[in-house]
């Protein structure tokens, strides 16, 4: 594509339209061809605001299909954010319409009336992408007051008051928010009881985070799943780095004791040493969107039988199982106590050690919690 654009004898052919008014950039935006769109916009100097027969620009099509990379590219290259299509809709109208439609589809699947009324239906990636794109457009100057042919402004198409508030803030601040880092809906952070404090109490056994420390003692049933609350634990800072707040729930033990960065290195819970089978992000525990992240289990544990050539398990060799147990004990003594994946090759002055990758990130020893003043590498 780069070679073709550099050899074009007629540069205007980049903006040539088909019978339906589609240009090459329209097709690239429609089909999420990011590299092609980038070459057309930058090397080919394509007109970003050309409209098809429906008066849609390439940005309209990218927003409609929720192609976030194309949207980011077009906005940063200077596309007009307020061009109206044949119905008078701007790209911001389109983004908020998708957000509302996906929200309604999800609410139809919520059977619990309490969750329905509180708006706690699962937020899918479709809804999240639309809201992120809408905030991104608003932050880069999309007009919130333009009306379509039905007399609707973009905010009229969004019944979510939290998102409307975020859009207004983004438009007012004109900050260069990115699509993936825009501030999420306040409903994920605020306490469901008082709406003043932040969610910081982990309910057991359901594993949801629904309210602040002050309101938690009054809650007998989880406000998200309606399951009885047997215990409440305040979410503290990460026990590994002591720098960020814990944000990942380990399954099946149910502990939340590590931040996302440190949890990615772990195979066992640092609090109870239980094997981690699933990691659940804090956003999911708060009733937001996302999926549990599966963690491969360790196949060298006690009683793990050998796999024979016919595919069956050989459970008759107890000696092999004993050797496997001894090997596992040796590994636990020599492996890093944080990630349980690499050998210890860094020692602190307190006498405890970790691997270099984990040790470089710590300000306190993960065993005795003493401050790390010096790190010694072993060779």
TrEMBL record:
Residues 191-226, 238-273, 336-369 form the RING-type domain. Keywords: ANK repeat, Metal-binding, Zinc, Zinc-finger. SMART domains: ANK, RING. ANK repeats lie at residues 20-44, 54-86. CDD domains: RING-HC_MIB1_rpt1, RING-HC_MIB1_rpt2, RING-HC_MIB1_rpt3. One of its GO terms (biological process) is protein ubiquitination. GO terms for molecular function: zinc ion binding. PANTHER family: E3 UBIQUITIN-PROTEIN LIGASE MIB1, E3 UBIQUITIN-PROTEIN LIGASE MIB2. This is RING-type domain-containing protein. It comes from Atta cephalotes (Leafcutter ant). The lineage of its organism: Eukaryota, Metazoa, Ecdysozoa, Arthropoda, Hexapoda.
């Amino acid at each position: 594509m780069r070679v073709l654009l550099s050899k074009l004898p007629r540069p205007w052919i980049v903006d040539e339209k088909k019978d339906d008014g589609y240009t090459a950039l329209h097709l690239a935006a429609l089909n999420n061809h990011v590299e092609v769109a980038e070459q057309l916009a930058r090397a080919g100097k394509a007109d970003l605001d050309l409209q098809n027969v429906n008066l849609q620009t390439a940005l309209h099509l990218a927003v409609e299909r929720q192609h976030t990379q194309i949207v980011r590219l077009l906005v940063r290259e200077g596309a007009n954010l307020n061009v109206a299509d044949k119905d008078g809709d701007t790209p911001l109208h389109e983004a908020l319409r998708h957000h509302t439609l996906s929200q309604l589809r999800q609410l139809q699947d919520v059977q619990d009336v309490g969750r329905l009324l509180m708006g706690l239906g699962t937020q899918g990636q479709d809804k999240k992408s639309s809201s992120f794109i809408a905030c991104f457009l608003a932050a880069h100057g999309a007009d919130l007051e333009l009306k379509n042919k039905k007399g609707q402004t973009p905010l009229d198409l969004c019944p979510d008051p939290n998102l409307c508030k975020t859009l207004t803030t983004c438009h007012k601040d004109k900050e260069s928010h990115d699509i993936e880092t825009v501030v999420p809906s306040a409903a994920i952070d605020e306490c469901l009881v008082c709406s003043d404090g932040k969610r910081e109490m982990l309910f057991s056994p359901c594993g949801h985070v629904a309210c602040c420390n002050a309101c938690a003692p009054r809650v007998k049933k989880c406000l998200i799943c309606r399951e009885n609350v047997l215990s409440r634990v305040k979410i503290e800072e990460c026990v590994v780095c002591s720098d960020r707040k814990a944000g990942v729930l380990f399954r099946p033990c149910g502990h939340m004791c590590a931040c996302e960065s440190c949890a990615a290195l772990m195979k066992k819970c640092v609090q109870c040493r239980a094997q981690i089978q699933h990691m659940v992000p804090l956003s999911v525990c708060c009733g937001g969107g996302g999926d549990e992240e599966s963690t491969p289990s360790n196949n060298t544990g006690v009683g793990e039988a050998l796999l024979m050539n016919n595919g069956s398990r050989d459970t008759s060799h107890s000696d092999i199982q004993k050797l496997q147990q001894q090997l596992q004990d040796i590994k636990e003594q020599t492996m890093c106590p944080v990630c349980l994946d690499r050998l210890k090759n860094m020692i602190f002055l307190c006498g405890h050690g970790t691997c270099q990758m984990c040790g470089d990130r710590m300000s306190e020893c993960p065993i005795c919690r003493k401050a790390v003043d010096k790190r010694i590498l072993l060779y």
